[in-house]
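Notebook B, p. 112. Complex prediction, attempt 2.
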Amino acid sequence: MTEIQNDQELLALFKIPASKEQAFTAIIKKYQEKLYWHIRRIVITHDDADDVLQNMFIKVWKGLENFREDSQLYTWLYRIATNESLTFLAKAKKRNSVSLNDDENGLSNKLKSDTHFDANKLEWKLQLAIQSLPEKQRVVFNLRYYEEMPYEEMSHILETSEGALKASYHHAAKKIENYILNN
Amino acid sequence: MEKSTEILNELMAISPALAAIERVNVFTVPEGYFIGLDEKIATTVFLQQDKKTAFQKVPEGYFDSLSDKILSKIKTREESPTEEIRSISPALHYLKDENVFDIPEGYFDDLSSRILNKIKESNTKVVSINSSRNWWKYAAAAAVAGIITIFSFQLFTTKNPNNNHLIANSSRMPEYIQLASQYKTDKEINQGIATLSDEEITNYLEKNTTILDDETLINNTDTKELPTPDDYLIDDNALNNYLQKINAEGVNKNTQ
């Protein structure tokens, strides 16, 4: 199996029992890094990102046969990854609702507990600033800032208009800038 | 220079005051303006001539595809993410490539095989629930019967003269153990179970689920009427709806 198979070919192979696992492995390899970083930036720690990534691919395995090819596989995978990550945070928030007060998801604390964390370094301030954003704005910011995703694709993943996404990104970037300047 | 003196003399004759003013150029030109000026002028002239000839010869079908060409140009000119963040916040633009997150070495190397193994494991572990609650009742009844039998047996043994201390302690035993002493035969035990409500059985099982082994559940379940895994994926509420449905069916059967 070549590395550069397109999604249509992979989906067709997935539907044939003999090549199902092979096609699925190729899909994982093709998208694993992009999806991992997308999830990691939402849930912060590697262990949580690993859990969410594995669970999302298990769901992909179950749902891929019924995947409608009128939408792109890439967009569909991102949508599942986003939903799984946000669901994971919601569950964590529910579990810890008593102990957490200042930071709803405890994500800032997770950042601060990283062995390399340095509050004086701009790159860590940036991460803390991103965590101060509302959940959906944070996802929009990450997708545009780190993954340079076109608004059109993002609108399919987040089911939001391109105009609203642009405005959200603009507000997010300004908020982050203010946070960095004032902290 | 002779010519210049002549001109000056001429001016002095006309207006001595004007001739006395020093000649200074008050106008400035942009730096380097004259460098390459000749080429610029030549190109402009050339383009204008070219336009004149082209104007009379519009390529065939030129206007048919003009709107598409303009639209595609607009699209390609749409601000790139890099330009966009630079215009919103130059500081964020410069921070962009700093990644603070670590990742274990070789993490992606065996990720796909770990996921496939997990899928295979989860496929073998799937335990489904029957469409009615009968299996649950049987399992609950078996568990409750077991407990009642054990306590009944213990209380029977207290009648033995060698175990007098147990008789003495029976009055201090919890109420449910004292109640269990009334069930001495299989028939009495079955009658006792029949008086238990679903709620009592459920409460009991919630506190004592370890009594049930997986095999009992598997042997008493029917997977035919379960929603498919795809249903769970497409709709988060599929399983909840299903459980509510079988719950309602159970209630209806009990009230009939």
